[in-house]
Amino acid sequence: MRALISALSLLLGTVAAAGVSTVAAPPPAAALPDGQALTPPMGFNNWNATGCAINETLIRDTADLFVSTGLKDAGYKYVNIDDCWAELDRDPVTGRYVPHHERFPSGIEALADYVHARGLKLGIYTSAGTQTCARTMPGSLGHEDIDAQTFAEWGVDYLKYDNCHNQNVPALERYPRMRDALKKTGRPIVYSICEWGQNRPWEWGADVGHLWRTTGDINDSWASMLSLFKSNVVLAPFAGPGHWNDPDMLEVGNGGMTEREYRSHFSLWASMAAPLLIGTDLRRATPQTLEILGNRDVIAVDQDPLGAQATVLRNDNGRWILKKPLANGDIAVTLFNETESSATIGTSAAELGLPQGPAYVLRDLWEHRTFESAGTFATTVPAHGTVMYRVSRGADWWRQPPASGFGVDLPSAGFGVPGSVVPAGKPFTASLSVANHGRLPMLEARFQFTAPDGWAVRRLDPNGRRLVRAGETVSTRYEVIPPAATPVGPYQLAATVTYHSIFDDEVHRSWSEELIVPEPVPAGVSELSAVHWAKAANGFGPVELDMSNGGIRPGDGRPLTINGRGYAKGLGTHAEASILYYLAGRCSSLSVDVGIDDERDPRPDPTQSTAIFEIWADGVKVADSGLRTWQDDAVHLDGNLTGASFLRIVTNGGPDGFRWDRGDWADPVLTCTI
Ligand code: GLA
Q1: 124, 133, 249, 601, best to mutate for ligand 1 pocket (most atoms within 8 Å of CB)
Q2: What average pLDDT is seen over the chain?
Q3: pLDDT score of 76 more than 80
Q4: In the annotation, is 162 catalytic?
Q5: I want to staple 598 with a disulfide (CB 3.0 to 4.6 A). Which of 71, 195, 287, 561 is the partner?
């Protein structure tokens, strides 16, 4: 087994973060597993929601909310405190941690009692260094025994052990030391290694802790979530009961992603048997957030006792199929659409390696409905969306309505432009289809299509067919016209298909997608920051106008500055960014200075601040900056846009990924002829 794991880790060498140190000696004895964390830990950690603005009220309220919202019954157990819970200095007499007087006036022990009284467990945090990452309290390096003893005496049940200020002591000395110290206390404490995947903890972590971070920190953005998914999904062979890969805590509910993206985040984490640590303030959680976090069908996949992490069955240009075997022989199938356009994604019983049978039972884990399928598991998945199925071989398949693939085809703008951008006044066609993937017929199948108020909709081929036999697909088409005066913006199109089983069970499947009605660019010469885009995606918070990207919040950048040169106008982006403008064939050129903004993150390594700036006219790249680093002056780009319907500007993170890459499009001047 170890030989296999080493061979796999050689193959997986590319996933390790930069700065991997060599694995010196085998870790000392005292091996796990110890019967803890046999399924991935579930609970809460305040960091993503509050940073250092933590206090005991938040922890108590969260414990209460676990109980009152049903999250405890759904499996959430650990209420974990992150950084900034202690005073800056240890007690001079005892050498112990002192809980922060303002944030935790009642102390940690009282808090543990409060949490335990509700049938829950308390987690705490420190760093395997001289201070924690926020530098507001001491770390445990050199104090492992007394700190472990203190945590145990307080009644702590979980420790997250971070990596900051580690004095370059090898991880393989620091992390086992705390493991041994925790063990000596005699109290069962789940041990979470948080060294950001820097020393390939998946190779040694199983003997040291119950879970290990495989990546740097998550932030509340689609790009961050996606990149952590991709780093973690390849590590499936290393996870199992008592030893889990940890792609970091959840961001569900924090506002930086859409509800559909949060469902994908939750689905992917559950498929990867990741710890499910809620990272939002539950006191402000919406019903939609609670519904995602409380989805018991999806939680059951995460918590399955077999403890297998999903593997990638296929990834077809961002259309992912993940397969997670479950303890009772079922298989969880995750259909994830990373792309910007909806797509049909699917697999079959044969591809999943399921034994042959007359039919299969298919549970849709987000719609909470069960179907029968002859062996095809496929449907349209919207851009950034995820569909999860649990597939089994139930003998009572014939009681279920047939599974269907519901497909909606909208015009793509073409030219490699993602999603649907529909200019006002121009007709387009939407096609709806439903495929019967079951053994039994679908009865009384009916489509319904809803466009925004005032839009003209005409069914092109009235289709009276109501019966869809096993294996058949029926479709219909609609012509849609957004009125000429439609204001620029996003609009929802919705469609449903309804059908009945032979037992008269009604199935209602719905779909919706956002269309963008773009604003044609103004005539003459304009600063691009004064022109409305049709669509924008950015790696970290929103694209900023006339300031650098800053952080997650809108408007939090600084004046645009590239290697000391300031610019009054422009766009502050963060890789991976893509901004689309509708030109309607009226423009001739974009002229712009590009470069990495001087607002760089100091950690971990400024050489990572690199990006490539690209200008696209329809499907053609018309200018490219090459790789720019934080040390470079701005470079000037001129893009020829003659005749193009769309302009797209892209800040591409370059070969080292997109972290720390704040790219400026400075003084961008768009020239249009009419
Ligand atoms: C590191 C960790 C985070 C969080 C912060 C607290 O960045 O990786 O998860 O604990 O420290 O300062």
Answers
A1: 133
A2: 91
A3: yes
A4: yes
A5: 561
Ligand 1 atom 11, closest CA: 133
Give 261's Cβ-side CA count (13 Å radius): 18
Residue with tokens 């640590």: 277
Q: Compute the C-alpha angle 452/456/461, nearest 5°.
A: 115
pTM: 0.84
Separation in Å, CA 614 to CA 494, 509, 542, 629: 34, 40, 19, 15
Q: With beta carbons less than 8 A apart as the criterion, state whether 622 and 616 touch.
A: yes
Tell me the two tokens of residue 205. Answer: 């972590």
pLDDT of 634 higher than 60: yes
Residue scoring higher pLDDT (307 or 9): 307
Residue of 515, 494, 635, 636 whose CA lies nearest to 582: 515
pLDDT the model gives residue 146: 98
Q: Would the pLDDT of 28 be above 70?
A: no
Sign of CA dihedral 41, 47, 49, 54: positive
The total of other beta-carbon atoms located within 10 Å of residue 347's CB is: 21
Q: How far is it, in rounded angstroms, from Cα 611 to Cα 496? A: 42
Residue 30 has pLDDT above 50, yes or no: no
648 residue type, one letter: R
Distance (Å) of CA 3 to CA 8, 9, 240, 433: 9, 10, 17, 50
Residue 4's Cβ-count burial label (10 Å; 0-12, 13-18, 19+) is exposed
* pLDDT score recorded for residue 519: 84
Identity of the residue numbered 26: P
Pocket of ligand 1 (CB under 6 A): 47, 82-83, 132-134, 162, 194, 217
Q: What is the pLDDT of residues 522-571, one digit of tens each?
A: 889 999 999 998 888 888 888 999 999 988 788 999 999 999 999 999 99
Number of the ligand 1 atom closest to the C-alpha atom of 217:
8
DSSP state of 432: E
Question: What is the DSSP track for 107-123?
Answer: HHHHHHHHHHHTT-EEE
Q: Kindly report, residue by residue over 213-235, the tens digit of the pLDDT.
A: 999 999 998 988 999 999 999 99
**Cβ atoms 670, 525 nearer than 8 A:** yes
Nearest to 110 by CA among 155, 46, 63: 155
Give the DSSP per-residue string, 570-582: EEEEESSEEEEEE
Q: Which residue has the tokens 């005292």?
A: 30
CA nearest 562: which of 625, 505, 627, 631? 631
What is the SS3 assignment for 169?
coil
Cβ atoms of 335 and 324 closer than 8 Å: no
**Interval 433-448: pLDDT, tens:** 999 999 999 999 999 9
- Of 417, 347, 358, the C-alpha closest to 381 is 347
| Spatial contact of 298 and 304, defined as CB atoms under 8 Å apart | no
> Would strands 343-348 and 560-562 be described as parallel, antiparallel, or unpaired?
unpaired
- Specify burial of residue 25 (Cβ count, 10 A radius: 0-12, 13-18, 19+): exposed
